[in-house]
Amino acid sequence: MNCIQTNAAISPGNSGGALVNLYGQVIGITSSKYAAVNSEGLGFAITINEAKPIIEELISQGYVSGRVRVGTVSYTHLTLPTI
Predict the structure, then answer these.
(1) pLDDT at 39 over 80
(2) Closest CA to 27 of 10, 48, 8
(3) d(CA 30, CA 47)
(4) Is the N end or the C end of the chain the one with fewer CB atoms within 10 Å?
(5) What average pLDDT does the segment 37-54 reach?
(6) Which long-range contacts (CB under 8 A, 24 or more apart) does 9-18 make?
(7) What was the pLDDT predicted at 8?
């Protein structure tokens, strides 16, 4: 995955936000943080070139094709044995 290294604060719960340049253009989506004792504030963002095709497919189809799907199956009619 192509990523951009950033010093933007990335904490649990706030990843997925836009990473913008000086002109307010979205250049990435914050995604992960490297945490270690001797290095703090090392964050990464997915480049907009990597994210844009996925975003466009989500908008047009509502899902991303070619990906594994996890789902549930529900049954509306359940017959219980009589006692």
Answers:
(1) no
(2) 48
(3) 9
(4) C
(5) 82
(6) 9/41, 9/43, 10/43, 10/44
(7) 77
pLDDT of residue 30: 86
Q: CA-CA distance, 25 to 72, in Å (whole number)?
A: 39
Residue 50: other Cβ atoms inside 10 A: 16
Q: In the structure encoding, which two tokens stand for residue 14, read together? A: 């706030």
Between 43 and 78, residue with greater pLDDT: 43
Residues recorded for the chain: 83
Residues in CB range of 71: below 8 A, 6 or more apart: none
Judge if pTM exceeds 0.70.
no
Instruction: Please give the angle made by the CA atoms of 5, 38 and 19, to the nearest 5 degrees.
Output: 20
Separation in Å, CA 9 to CA 16, 39, 58: 12, 13, 27
SS3 label, residue 17: coil
